[in-house]
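[step 3/7] inverse_fold.run input=structure_tokens len=458
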């Protein structure tokens, strides 16, 4: 039998419970258990005037932003429409059926003012890490570090040849932010190599073709994650150059120790983090095992002996060549001991002309020079340690665990929709990366921690 036709009609009263309407297994219901924002009002209090009209509740704005980043709603205008219409979103925002959704412009005003002044989004992210630690899903034994390029909100069709060519008349907030981070190691001071083009709309974004294919303007999203359940323990925005990413790894490791008391026994990363300086910092200064491939350019391709063919004698601080002769750092005794280290942290070990001149292996060793010379980094001990670790079974496990951070970046771009930034400038990138990392941690908590059954009554 055909059912009755639905006729639009306005009822005067409804018996409707928003609480009952949201399914027990809804993502936002699972996330809501871990969103604790009661501290936000206290943190923001100094940034509000004591007089004037009451503002929009900051907790409501943060809850709306979390919906946007957890559910891949990138536009704040669309977010407001969705929260207005979606009952589960209204439930998560504590809006009820008739609560008023703020205008999208409210987010922009608060972001450029109170939220950044109080570093609110950073604290929000840190709160999710503390929650993960409290739930016991952060092991703390091993961390993985990696970075992923995220397209900036800047047209690749437009670009000035240098920052000096930018029109000062049209200076925007993004240009002001670019000037503010010129000496910052994560941005302007990361490299002395000038970019090929500078975007007039977001000059701090780096013109890069590092991902292969067409070049574009980008920022780097740096993640430090715990290997046990891939919880993001720190996040940092940098310009898209490798030196900035390595600096960010050091910043994040130090900050994680200071903020959460987490200090890993091993760090897993790709070759980009395997420079001598980085390995030296990890091993000699921090006591962390580097599960990182060594960045090594000493291998020769012209058929002559590479450095690997020479044996280093640690006790006597010298190399033994394939012809069983010694290559020494210094042959003379100096009254004032000399370090003999150049600006790049390299020491030179030399054979004698006498040894090489009469050697049958010279054509395969140093055919164009009177004697062989080897370079050794002051961090070579740390590099040797990384090479030894690379031969172990634990290292093979670490290589597999490194995939976890790549999965997080893939999820960030494909599911959460952060393949391109919506906000401009270094602060815009920071805001988006903090919110996205907080959303990913909350989704992780929702997935891993089962809903506890209510305690029996009576
Ligand atoms: S050429 Fe010199 S350094 Fe090379 S194997 Fe012969 S003696 Fe050793």
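[step 3/7] decode complete -> sequence:
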């Amino acid at each position: 039998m055909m059912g009755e036709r639905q006729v639009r009609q306005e009822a005067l009263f409804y018996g409707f419970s928003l609480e009952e309407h949201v399914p027990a297994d809804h993502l936002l219901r699972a996330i809501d258990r871990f969103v604790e924002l009661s501290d936000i009002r206290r943190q923001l209090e100094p940034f509000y005037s004591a007089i004037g009209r009451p503002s929009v509740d900051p907790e409501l704005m943060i809850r709306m932003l979390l919906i946007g980043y957890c559910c891949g709603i990138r536009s704040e205008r669309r977010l407001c429409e969705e929260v207005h219409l979606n009952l589960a979103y209204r439930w998560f925002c504590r809006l009820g059926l008739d609560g008023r959704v703020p205008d999208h412009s409210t987010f922009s005003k608060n972001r450029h003012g109170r939220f950044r002044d109080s570093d609110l989004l950073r604290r929000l992210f840190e709160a999710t890490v503390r929650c993960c630690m409290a739930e016991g899903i952060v092991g703390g034994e091993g961390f993985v570090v990696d970075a992923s390029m995220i397209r900036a909100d800047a047209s690749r069709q437009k670009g000035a040849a240098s920052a000096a060519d930018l029109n000062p008349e049209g200076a925007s907030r993004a240009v002001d932010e670019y000037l503010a981070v010129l000496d910052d190691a994560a941005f302007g001071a990361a490299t002395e190599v000038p970019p090929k083009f500078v975007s007039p709309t977001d000059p701090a974004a780096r013109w890069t073709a590092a991902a292969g294919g067409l070049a574009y303007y980008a920022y780097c999203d740096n993640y430090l994650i715990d290997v046990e359940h891939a919880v993001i323990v720190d996040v940092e925005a940098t310009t898209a150059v490798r030196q900035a990413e390595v600096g960010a790894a050091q910043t994040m490791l130090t900050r994680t120790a200071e903020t959460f008391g987490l200090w890993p026994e091993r760090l897993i990363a790709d070759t980009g983090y395997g420079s001598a300086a980085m390995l030296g910092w990890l091993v000699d200064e921090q006591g962390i095992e580097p599960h990182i491939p060594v960045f090594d350019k000493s291998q020769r391709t012209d058929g002559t002996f590479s450095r690997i063919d020479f044996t280093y004698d640690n006790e006597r601080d010298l190399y033994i060549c394939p012809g069983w002769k010694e290559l020494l750092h210094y042959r003379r005794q100096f009254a004032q001991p000399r370090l003999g280290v150049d600006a790049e942290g390299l020491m030179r070990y030399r054979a004698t002309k006498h040894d090489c001149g009469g050697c049958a292996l010279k054509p395969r060793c140093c055919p164009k020079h009177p004697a062989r010379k080897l370079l050794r980094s002051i961090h070579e001990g740390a590099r040797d340690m990384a090479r030894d670790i690379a031969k172990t079974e634990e290292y093979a496990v670490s290589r597999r665990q490194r995939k976890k951070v790549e999965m997080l970046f893939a999820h960030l771009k494909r599911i959460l929709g952060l393949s391109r930034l919506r906000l401009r400038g270094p602060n815009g990138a920071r805001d988006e990366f903090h919110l996205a990392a907080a959303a990913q941690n909350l989704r992780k908590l929702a997935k891993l921690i089962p809903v506890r059954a209510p305690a029996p009554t009576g």
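[step 4/7] annotate
Residues 298 and 349 are 14 Å apart (CA to CA).
Residues 270-275+284-378 form one domain.
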